[in-house]
Write a structure and sequence with these properties.
single chain, 250 residues, alpha/beta, Spore Coat Polysaccharide Biosynthesis Protein SpsA, Chain A, eight-stranded mixed beta sheet, 12 strands, 30% helix
Length: 250
């Protein structure tokens, strides 16, 4: 039987956004032990990141901007996107070094948890175990961009290409994969990185750099939604574009 003690929980949050920390803290179930990235001794704030500091830390950027009708691809990365990816990566690294629970839950600080969140999460995980339904990555909420497929277990789907990483859970097998694929040497938005690991990414360059290697499922309906940007703002988008001429790419 899977219990809440089997889940290590992380919340992506910036030190200057104590308002968002207080908001999500008030909505988190008391039985979850939570680690906040705002307590880590490093900065993920896109307002304060600089290419020189990233390079000094051994971080390399993927050659992101391409000619495309997709406006998210036909522009440079923003420092906030880089910082967000690094914050998620820090959660994975911390979980590998400091926890031994079989599951790791990652929430962003604008996640809206549904009613009876813990009960529904544990019920779903135990159903997947009872049905022997394999998964390594489990979306609790997301924005689908391509069609899903029906999963063998009711209440879940096999996700197609999706965006948004405000609520997901993964196994320790997935944790090893997330840390082994070399994301630090080819930083891309985490919203693009996660789907690349379970479906062929629509961008050939990303599909080649990060081929599918995880089994993914998603709650349907989702257990978690996201606060509207007009209400909570966006720390990812509220930052400057990188100067792509300042580095040679990955």
């Amino acid at each position: 039987m899977i219990t809440v003690r089997d889940i290590a929980t992380y919340v992506v949050n910036l030190p200057r956004r104590q308002d968002r920390r207080a908001w999500i803290h008030a909505s988190l179930p008391d039985d979850l032990t939570v680690t906040y990235t705002s307590d880590f001794d490093r900065s993920f704030d896109g307002r304060h990141l600089a290419l020189a500091d990233l390079e000094a830390d051994g971080i390399e950027l993927f050659d992101w901007q391409i000619d495309s009708s997709n406006p998210w691809w036909n522009r440079p990365l923003k420092f906030g996107e880089i910082g967000c990816t690094l914050a998620h990566l820090a959660c994975w690294s911390h979980a590998a070094d400091h926890t031994d629970q079989p599951y790791v839950l990652v929430l962003e600080d604008d996640a809206v948890l549904g009613t009876a969140f813990t009960e529904n999460l544990l019920h779903g995980l135990n159903r997947l175990r009872q049905e022997a339904a394999p998964f390594e990555l489990l979306y609790l909420g997301r924005y689908p961009l391509e069609p899903d497929r029906q999963a063998a277990v009711p209440g879940f789907v096999v996700p197609g290409y999706s965006h948004c990483s405000y609520a997901y859970l993964f196994t320790r097998t997935a944790l090893a994969t997330l840390l082994a694929v070399g994301l630090r040497q080819a930083i891309v938005p985490v919203d693009e990185f996660l789907p690349a690991l379970y479906v062929p990414h629509p961008r050939e360059d990303l599909r080649t750099r990060f081929p599918p290697q995880l089994t993914a499922l998603a709650f349907d309906p989702p257990l978690v939604t996201q606060r509207p940007k007009e209400v909570a703002g966006s720390d990812t988008e509220d930052s400057g574009f990188i100067d792509t001429s300042a580095h040679s790419g990955a």
